[in-house]
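Quick start: read one record
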Amino acid sequence: MLRNQLIDLRSSDAVDVMFANPLNGTVDILFQTGHAYTYTNVSRRAIVNLILNPNMSLGFWINENLVGANRTKYKSQGILNPELRKHSSYELERSFAATRPELRAYALAG
C-alpha cells in the first residue's frame, strides 16, 4: 500500500492520472494537457493524508503541497505522445460521453 499509490480518480479539471509514494516522498502527475511532472521532497504526511481522504480536492492538495510548498522540487517529464493521449482516462471519458446522448453536453463542455 505504501509504494506507488494510484490516487483515486476524482473530478479534476487539470489532473488526468496521479501516483504518490509516501515512502520516498514523490508524486508523479499527468495533466490533461499531456504534460507530466515528477515532484520530489513532498511531505510524506501530506501524501498519506491525500491517500486516506478520497474526498479531498486534488487541485487544493496540489496547490498547497506541491506548487506552493518551498520544500518540493519538480522535474518536467515532457509531453505525452499524442498517440498515447487517446488512451488517457480524460480522453477515454470524453469519447465515452460523446457516444451517449445524455452525456454529450458534458463531453463538448470539457
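Helices lie at 44-52, 58-67, 82-85, 89-99, 104-109.
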